[in-house]
Specification:
S-adenosylmethionine decarboxylase, alpha+beta, six-stranded antiparallel β-sheet, 136 residues
Length: 136
């Protein structure tokens, strides 16, 4: 199978606490990242936790962007999955800049691509035999 998408997993540190705890600024950064990545927004959801932290998701025609903040640690985690058109790296770069992260670690995962190294496809019937009975 050919690669059908790109999935970026982002860990980012040393962002300003106030910025990471502001749901409207998070919403703005997320929507601008969607635009920067050339993606098509379907829906946006932002939730403020108490006493701190924000989770925001953008459902895209191309898949999604999810963002979770821990202001008390100056940390955020982002998950960008694009298939079809769009440029997830541009969206990611915008988020990192907008949220003023000083240190970043990015893992890129090709999705849909069958690799012979480090992973293997799982037969659905095997999963059903082992997991489904445990759920009953």
């Amino acid at each position: 199978m050919k690669q059908i998408g790109t999935h970026l997993v982002v860990d980012a540190w040393e962002s300003p606490t106030a910025l990471l705890n502001d749901p409207e600024r998070i919403r703005g950064a997320l929507l601008d990242a969607v635009s920067a990545g050339g993606a098509t927004l379907i829906d946006c959801c932002v939730h403020q936790f108490s006493p701190h932290g924000v989770t925001a998701t953008a459902t895209l025609a191309e898949s999604h962007i999810a963002l979770h903040t821990w202001p008390e640690f100056g940390y955020f985690a982002a998950d960008l999955f694009f298939c079809g058109k769009g440029e997830p790296k541009k969206a990611m770069e915008f988020l990192i800049s907008a949220l003023q992260a000083q240190k970043v670690q990015v893992t890129e995962l090709p999705r849909g691509f069958k690799s012979e190294i480090g992973s293997h496809p799982v037969d659905r019937s095997d999963v059903e035999k082992e997991l489904v009975p445990a759920l009953r």
